[in-house]
């Protein structure tokens, strides 16, 4: 299967009954962007811009950021890059952006919260994003949004950073859905968005109150838990026919998850570059109607384990 996967790597991934699923890549560097292109990624669904900011004494300036974003764009050879604004905080500290010690950094001042607390840094990043968008297909998205007010303030900073020429017309603006409250309130966010990308790593952590990376609760934090799938479903139902829904958490490359996410209405899966060919191959085996039927059953299941059994019964063991 591997040879066939590679041969068709850059072809689009289409289900047997003709639904196109964009298989995108998650990037953290220019080298990743090269791997993503080589692996046949349709676009970059999540560029973790932290890579530019971590491990240095001062933040990169606008010129340096623009150069790095354009280097990524060039490596993608015309495919769209979705730049996620700086997602740091107590769990990923920066020397030039000190945050007070927190007992629960995952529940603290991180992501968009920190960025809006120190808006100069976000404004500068959005300036670099606008400059990039004037030269290459670019989207921007904000991490860890919990309230509509946060998204409005981020939009205001974007408009300010864009300057007198205005926000570039081709710049698509989205947000990560990784806080359960944002998933539940999705309807209120929609008028302010071109797309959403569901971050199932954090969404699962918050939905199940199970810290990501903590081995003691690893068994609990399964993104195929029906509670997480119900949140994904809620977002897809509200977004249907209005804006695009992507998933960029780890689960997007889980062979068992792909048919369920597609069945719920997700039309972009963003995964590690090496996982792109396998996810495309998986999509090509699927029939949308069957995905929808099994996804509905998964929503009513009792546990992630039961969900995996449903998938195995429908498509064979993964
Ligand atoms: C996520 O939370 O699912 C996500 C993709 O973002 P990160 O893993 O960078 O927190
Ligand atoms: Mg996240």
Overall description:
The chain is an alpha/beta fold and 318 residues long. It is 45% helix and 13% strand. It has 15 helices and 9 strands. It has an 8-stranded parallel beta barrel with strand order 2-3-4-5-6-7-8-9, surrounded by 6 helices. Strand 2, helix 2 and strand 3 form a beta-alpha-beta unit. Helix 4 packs across helix 6 and helix 14 runs antiparallel to helix 15. The longest helix has 15 residues. The radius of gyration is 19 Å and the shape is globular. Bound molecules: phosphoenolpyruvate (PEP) and magnesium ion. Phosphoenolpyruvate binds next to strand 3 and helix 10. The site of phosphoenolpyruvate has 10 residues, from strand 3 and helix 10.
Largest sheet: 8 strands, parallel, barrel
Taking all residues together, what is the mean pLDDT?
Answer: 96
**Total beta-strand segments:** 9
Question: Largest beta sheet: what is the strand line-up?
Answer: 2-3-4-5-6-7-8-9
Q: List unreliable stretches of 5+ residues.
A: none
Query: What share of the residues does DSSP label as strand, in percent?
Result: 5-15%
Tell me the Rg in angstroms.
19 Å
Protein name: Phosphocarrier protein HPr
Organism: Nocardioides agri
Subcellular location: Cytoplasm
Family: Belongs to the PEP-utilizing enzyme family.
């Amino acid at each position: 299967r591997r040879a066939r996967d590679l041969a068709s790597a850059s072809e689009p991934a289409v289900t047997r009954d003709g639904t196109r699923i964009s298989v995108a890549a998650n990037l953290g560097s220019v080298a990743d962007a090269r791997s993503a292109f080589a692996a046949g990624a349709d676009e970059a669904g999540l560029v973790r811009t932290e890579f530019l900011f971590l491990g240095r004494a001062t933040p990169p300036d606008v010129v340096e950021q623009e150069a790095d974003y354009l280097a990524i764009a060039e490596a993608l050879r015309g495919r769209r890059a979705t730049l996620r604004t700086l997602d740091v905080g107590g769990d990923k500290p920066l020397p030039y952006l000190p945050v007070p010690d927190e007992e629960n950094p995952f529940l603290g001042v991180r992501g968009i919260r920190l960025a809006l607390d120190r808006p100069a840094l976000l404004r500068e990043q959005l300036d670099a994003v606008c400059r990039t968008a004037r030269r290459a297909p670019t989207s921007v998205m904000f991490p860890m949004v919990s309230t509509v007010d946060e998204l409005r303030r981020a939009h205001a900073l974007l408009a300010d950073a864009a300057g007198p020429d205005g926000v570039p017309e081709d710049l698509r603006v989205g947000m990560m859905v990784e806080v359960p409250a944002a998933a539940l309130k999705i309807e209120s966010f929609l008028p302010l968005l071109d797309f959403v990308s569901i971050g199932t790593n954090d969404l699962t952590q918050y939905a199940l109150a199970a810290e990501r990376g903590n081995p003691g609760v690893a068994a609990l934090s399964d993104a195929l838990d029906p509670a997480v799938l119900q949140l994904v479903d809620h977002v897809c139902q509200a977004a249907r026919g209005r804006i695009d829904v992507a998933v960029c958490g780890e689960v997007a490359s889980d062979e068992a998850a792909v048919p369920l996410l597609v069945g719920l209405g997700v039309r972009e899966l963003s995964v590690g570059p090496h996982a792109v060919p396998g996810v495309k191959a998986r999509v090509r085996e699927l029939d949308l109607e069957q995905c929808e039927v099994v996804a509905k059953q998964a929503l009513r299941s009792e546990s992630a384990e039961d969900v995996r059994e449903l998938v195995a019964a429908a498509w064979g063991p993964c």
